[in-house]
Amino acid sequence: MKKWMVVASVLALLVCGAALMSLAQEQGPHKEFMGGPGHGPGMGMMLHELNLTDAQKEQVHAIMKANHATMKPLMQQLEQNRAALLAATANGAYDAAKIQALATQQAQLQAAMIVNHESIQHQIYTQVLSSEQQAKAEQLRSDEIKRINERLQKIANGAEKEGPAAQ
After folding, report:
1. What percent of the chain has pLDDT over 70?
2. pTM of the model
3. Secondary-structure breakdown of the chain: helix, strand, coil percentages, each rounded to the nearest 5
C-alpha cells in the first residue's frame, strides 16, 4: 500500500512540475502559478487557494525564475527521451533492451525533476508563505493525501472484486 502511495505521489509531483515549467515558459509572470482552465490541480491550484498577495506572487515568480535554468534542461531531456522512446517503438518495433535503457533514463530524469520541484515548493513554503498560509497549505496537503488514499482503496477493492471472479 505504501509503495502505491509513493508511486502515485511521485507521478503527481512530476506532472505538477512539468506543468508549472511549461506554463512558466508560455504565460506571463503570474499566470503560471495560478493555473487556469484545463490545467488541473497542482502547485498553481494550491497557491491560488492560499490567496497570495501581489508581493508574494512576485516572490514566487522570482523563485521560479531562479530555478528555471535548472529545470529547463531536464524538461528538454525528458522530451528528447520521450521522442526516442516513440521512435524506438514506431511501426510496432520492440527492442526490450533499448526500451529498458530509455525507461531507466526517463526514470532518472523524472527523479531529478521531482527533487527540483520539491526544492521549489520548499523555498516557496519557507520564504514566501505566512504561518497562516502554511497551515492552509498543510490542510490542502492532508486533503490531497486523503483523496489519494481513497483512490487507492477503490483500486484495491476493485482488484479484490475482480480477483476471485476472474479465476
Report:
1. 69
2. 0.66
3. 85, 0, 15
